[in-house]
Each structure stands twice: as structure tokens, then as C-alpha cells.
Specification:
The protein is of the alpha/beta class. It contains twelve helices and 15 strands. A hairpin with a 2-residue loop joins β14 and β15. The structure holds adenosine-5'-triphosphate (ATP) and magnesium ion.
């Protein structure tokens, strides 16, 4: 699976861009603020309909413009299109996703251009909140597994409703048996979600990780009807569902040390990359084809031995690397790659 062409209209600092990916390997070179990360982000938007860098989709629209359009052609000439609008009275949609011109539900759109992205700031994943770690986890699992995607969405719906009922009961407006329906749904969908997360962690823990002996420890917040019954009093007091996949977490361990609390900056960065590359391998196994790999400024802080290992991987699938200086990129990759200069929202020939 290859992304052959991308067309941007009013996306971030791009007014209009058409770019053909003639080679499987691409290097984007340019100064700070040229638009390198934005270009990688636009590709990831086609993969997931999400950006890892913004809270609201509208932030992706070029300043002063009304809408943003990202179109990609993948092999077999399938056209993927994401359109983002500023919400106004006339505009009834904020984000529209289409395949070959036909509007799709987000969950049918995701997964057509599987990709893994690594940004330097993803290191936040290690030290940040469990929600951020789950987000990084979910974005890759959702791309490869329709059942996961649906179970996760429904789980979220049950969770919201169940919390509302808990609150009503606490306020004396509802009865405890009103919870049963939501509890059963929550447990059913929660088991699907945590089962698939568990399978993912089991797989990546038996991979040999060339970047170091990283282990990924999954802390499952196990949910069952019995467990929920046991904590019913506490749940009613707090009006919160206290266990389940929305409380899952994981940590990355190197030689017995948690990277969150004991990792050096370089180790945390390598750990993040190791996690992303493990996701790539899992997705490749599950899909039977390799996702696109998008690497933003990956080499600048890696030492020589780690660079060499990353080079082994970047040759295996379509890979797009952004960098400020070509010196940061190993020669073996440069030999394979097409080098594109990015300048002020344009590609300079
Ligand atoms: P660096 O090497 O510093 O990482 P970069 O080439 O990756 O630089 P980008 O993150 O792609 O730079 O950003 C390029 C420019 O796009 C920045 O000047 C940024 O402020 C600008 N930009 C971001 N969002 C928008 C937007 N919605 N409208 C217009 N410009 C934007
Ligand atoms: Mg950048």
C-alpha cells in the first residue's frame, strides 16, 4: 500500500500543494517553520481523520480561510478526502470524510491508509497523563481493527450514560437497578477493548526491539459485573464509573526502570520511538501489509547505534522523514530517498 499523491488546499501554512511520491522513501528538508511537520500531519489526517497536534480540527484550516481540504490517492487509485469547515450558520458539517467521492462514517474511513507517526513531542506520552498514552495506543489499534473501533466508541457511550445515571441516583432521582442496562453494555464492550489491548501488549513484548530491551507493561483496569457490584457504594458516592478500560494505563520499562520516572531524556525519546515501531510491526502483522511510517525529526537526538537500527526499519515500507539538516539522515537512507525541499508552505524543485 502506497500513498501516491497528496493535494492540500488551505491546510496549515499550505495554500495549494500537489505532491507526487515517486519513490517509496522521501526526505522533507527545510528550515524551522517551513511546513515539514504540517505535511506529515496532513498524511496522518488521511489515516485517522485526527491530528495528534491540535484539540480542534479548525486549527488545521489555514489562517483567514474558510475551509481546508486534504486529498490523497493510494494505490489502485483510491481517493481519500477530508474536508474541514469553520462552523457557521450555513455550514452544517465541520468535518467530512469521503472515499472516491462518497461520504463515509469516520469509522469506515479510518484504516484505508494505515500509518504510524512519530513527532519529537510524542515524548510527552511517557511522562504525560494515562489518557494521552491511551490515545496513542487507540489510534493505531483503531486503524487495524473495525471491531475495536466500534467497541471503543460504544464503550464511551455506555460510560457517559452510566455516569449520568449514577449521578441521578446520588441525587435521589433514580433507582439502583436502572444501572443494570448500562453496566451490562459497559462490561461487554469493555471486555472487547481490554482483550484487544492485552493481545497487543503480549505481541509487542515478545518482539526483539533493536532500540533496547524495552518492555511494555499493561495495567488493565479490569471490569466485570461482580467487580462493579463490589464497588457500588464508592461509585454512587462519586457518581463515577471507577473501573474499566477508561482507567487503563501502560508504562515502558528498560532494565527494570520505568522510563516515566527514571528515564533520561534520550532514553524517553528512544522508548517512545520503540513503542511506535512496535505498533508498526503489530499493524503490519495484523494487516498483512506494512503501514506508512512518518518520522518527524527522528535522527537528531539518537546516537549512532540507534540510528543504524532505525535505518534498517525505514527501508521496509513507504517512509517519509522530515529534517532540518541532511547531515542528520544516514547516508543509506539518503541513497534510497527522493529529497524534497520545503520552504514557506511550498515544495521547491
Ligand atoms: P520545525 O523545523 O521548526 O519543526 P516545520 O517545518 O516542521 O518546522 P511546521 O510545524 O510544519 O514547521 O509549521 C510551519 C508553519 O505553519 C509555522 O510557521 C506555523 O506557525 C504555521 N501554521 C500552523 N498552523 C497554521 C494555520 N492554521 N494557518 C497558517 N499557518 C499555520
Ligand atoms: Mg516540525
Amino acid at each position: 500500500m502506497v500513498l501516491k499523491q497528496i493535494n492540500l488546499t488551505n491546510f496549515r501554512n499550505y495554500s495549494a500543494l500537489t505532491l507526487d511520491f515517486d519513490k517509496r522513501q522521501t526526505v522533507l528538508i527545510g528550515n524551522n517553520a517551513a511546513g515539514k511537520s504540517n505535511l506529515l500531519e496532513s498524511i496522518y489526517l488521511l489515516s485517522t481523520t485526527k491530528s495528534l497536534r491540535v484539540e480542534r480540527d479548525e486549527e488545521l484550516i489555514k489562517d483567514g480561510e474558510e475551509f481546508s481540504r486534504v486529498e490523497g490517492f493510494i494505490d489502485g487509485e483510491t481517493e481519500l478526502l477530508v474536508v474541514i469547515n469553520h462552523p457557521t450558520d450555513e455550514v452544517i458539517f465541520r468535518k467530512k470524510v469521503l472515499i472516491n467521492g462518497i461520504g463515509k462514517k469516520v469509522y469506515d474511513f479510518i484504516g484505508n491508509l494505515p500509518a504510524v507517526i512519530f513527532y519529537p513531542q510524542d515524548i510527552n506520552m511517557i511522562t504525560g497523563s494515562p489518557a494521552l498514552r491511551r490515545w496513542h495506543l487507540d489510534l493505531s489499534l483503531a486503524q487495524i481493527d473495525q471491531e475495536y473501533k466500534k467497541a471503543l466508541t460504544l464503550y464511551g457511550d455506555y460510560l457517559t450514560s452510566r455516569n449520568k445515571v449514577l449521578k441521578r441516583i446520588r441525587e435521589g432521582q433514580g433507582k439502583v437497578d436502572e444501572l443494570d442496562y448500562w453496566t451490562n453494555g459497559l462490561v461487554e464492550k469493555g471486555k472487547i477493548v481490554s482483550g484487544k489491548r492485552k493481545e497487543f501488549f503480549e505481541f509487542i513484548n515478545q518482539l526483539s526491539t533493536p532500540l533496547g530491551e524495552f518492555k511494555f507493561e499493561y495495567f488493565q483496569s479490569e471490569v466485570s459485573v461482580e467487580k462493579l457490584q463490589e464497588i457500588n457504594g464508592r461509585e454512587l458516592a462519586s457518581a463515577q464509573t471507577l473501573i474499566g478500560p477508561h482507567r487503563d494505563d501502560f508504562s515502558i520499562i528498560l532494565e527494570g526502570r520505568s522510563m516515566a520516572t527514571h528515564g533520561s531524556r534520550g532514553e524517553q525519546r528512544t522508548a517512545t520511538l520503540a513503542f511506535k515501531l512496535a505498533q508498526l510491526e503489530y499493524m503490519a502483522i495484523k494487516l498483512g501489509k506494512r503501514p506508512i511510517l512518518l518520522l518527524d525529526d527522528v535522527f537528531s537526538e539518537l546516537d549512532a547505534s540507534h540510528r543504524a537500527h532505525v535505518v534498517d526499519i525505514v527501508g521496509k515500507q513507504q517512509t517519509i522523514i522530515a529534517t532540518v539538516e541532511l547531515e542528520n539522515i544516514p547516508q543509506e537512507f539518503l541513497d534510497l530517498a527522493r529529497i524534497l525541499k520545503v520552504e514557506n508552505g511550498k515544495i521547491i524543485p
